[in-house]
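*** Residues and shapes ***
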Amino acid sequence: MRLGIMGGTFDPIHLGHLATAEAVRENFSLDEILFIPAARPPHKLARHITDERQRLAMTILATRSNKFFRVSDMELRRTGLSYTLDTMNELHATFGQSTELFFIIGADSLADLQKWHAARELVDKCHFIATTRQGVDINFSAVEKFFGAIANEHIHRTSTPGLEISSTDIREKVRLGRSIKYLVPEAVEDYIAREGLYL
């Protein structure tokens, strides 16, 4: 099995996340994409994050129309800080060691990958797919220098639809009373309004 993993705070999940996941699924012939809302990412401790139950609910609403998308609350059930290595270990325990894991990240995250917790062990356990817009190049030399030969085997690059959508911008638009239509799925837009999020 070839399992794609799309992690993030999803605060809120938006059409850019969904379009990227679907493009990667097709480009790499993945069987499924598992969306995993993060509990408390170590790099976002300073900012307020919406309640995990609400972020999970929005992720479920956003993905339910795609038969290849699933949602897991595994990181939300875990106590303490949320490290990607713990998630990969849990996924291998759940799906078996023969399952190939493909963790989807943005080009900006690839540049910082060597700073992640237990980065070398992590790259050994799973594949990384760094996504970027068409025509935007990713500087891979620093990554190769740090990780060595396995970088070319386990770290991949691909271009995806250039949807310039940001969760930060969506939260700000809601706060200012501006429209977020066509930035998030309609069900997520309705949920944000109903729950009074980001005001």
Summary: The two ends are 42 Å apart (CA to CA). The chain has one domain: 2-163. Residues 145 and 151 are 9 Å apart (CA to CA). The domain at 2-163 is CATH 3.40.50.620 (Rossmann fold).
